[in-house]
Amino acid sequence: MKWHWLPAALCLGLSPLLYASDDVSARDWLERMSHALETLNYEGTFVAVHEGSLEAMHLVHMVDQGKQKERLLSLNGAAREVVRDDERVICYWTDSRSVLVDKRGSQRTFPRVLPSEFSGLTGHYELRMGKEGRITGRLAVEVGIEPVDRYRYGYRLWLARDNALPLKSEMIDENGKPVEQIMFTSLEVYASTDDAKLKPSTDGSGFTWIHNDKSVMADDAGTPHWRPERVPPGFEMVAHDRQRLASTGKVVEHMVFSDGLASFSVYVEALGGTDGMDGISRMGAVTAFGRTIGDYQITVVGEVPEATVALVGNAIVPTGAHSP
Amino acid sequence: MKTNPNELLSALVDGELGARETDEILAQMRSDAELQGTWERFQWIGDAIRNNLPESVPVGKEADIAARVSVALADEPAILAPAALDADKPRSRFRPLVGVAVAASVAGLAVMGLRAMTQDGNQGPLALQGTPVVMQEPIKVGRMPESLEPAQRSRLTRYLVSHYENAPNGGMKGMLPYVSVVGYNGR
User: Fold this and answer.
1) Rounded Cα gap, residues A203 and A239, in angstroms
2) Topology of the domain comprising A214-318
3) Nearest residue, CB atoms, B168 vs list A2, A61, A84
4) What is the ipTM of this complex?
5) Is B99's CB within 8 Å of A279's CB?
């Protein structure tokens, strides 16, 4: 996992004066949250509310010798679940009897550029502490993250007073309306790991297994063939690569942009003019924008407002590093 | 202003609640097992109506819910007609925002896409189109599989998972980004 709140702790500054500020204690709480999410064994049921839907899900997180393992399971309808560890993400869909396997990319295939820690965050969000309250029967502190423009969502988080695990979160759009709300209805912390809780409800035998394998292009993978002419303020490219997919043989260029908190990906794939997709679509927290340039499909996807994916999607141009 | 919990619940399922009302109903649901049960039934009955109940129900907590829902289905036919299941009511998020009703969203694609990849495209959600129930629910079930080609769906599924695995802010929400992948229940 990528726990990039961690650097926030390093930025804290130890001056008591600074420490007393709202901004710093909010950062402190966010860092504590990240640390808790990463290091504790926990299991909980939560509801996720998006406009038009409400889902119940079950989450298990275990840490075994420093390695995290997680399982997320839908409680409504056909069982759909994701389990992942350091190496792989496996998505099971019992209704379609299929399994998608993806290798964890973060530390392996991606030449990763570290985001500029939280310096960028400072300019594009304002942090504040809210009131203390009660969530799921527990004392919680509220932390607000407010964007300064319409190119990113804001957040309100309610963290358990005792262990900083998030009991409730809201992602807020530019009009102040919640895009996504997540609230735990139960959340247990365990002293020791229990692998049985991580076992998927199906072993996937008899299912269709799809391996999202890709080989990193050996050529000039470091030089993007495409780039957005502009991105919203504060977003920087933090990862880039070009891969050939084992399944289709097609080459996909992938760029990840982040402002330290929000992120979106740009994908450029040569489709030969087929299966193109145009326009904006969204559900819940995810917004996608599709556009076709000649034989290439441009897709921008992320948990960011429509304005962001549309701006970036419309700004994609070939760099000339490779004539398309 | 709705005050009746059941009305609030219906509105919530319909995505018609503001932040404050949503907070309110969630708070009530926490402390009110009966209300929570009602919500579960809304969800499960909706699934049942859409012919979408799982073939097998997992063990443990979920099994309890399933059992309770079976009872609810037998005992409470009246609940089949709450506003929450009003088929004519469009769900705003599922309306295509632009052209291609890609709509359903990338999250939906994660589910639908794989169906399409593993079946012949006339199965799964598309097969439901022949049923009267789905005829009544053009927005919730019909549009999405029609709006995207199987290749588009599977591609977006790939993209979404890959994005989550490579975006640097995972620490913010931990596993929760996958809510979008797992959470879509075909509605």
Assistant:
1) 33
2) Phosphorylase Kinase; domain 1 (3.30.200)
3) A2
4) 0.77
5) yes
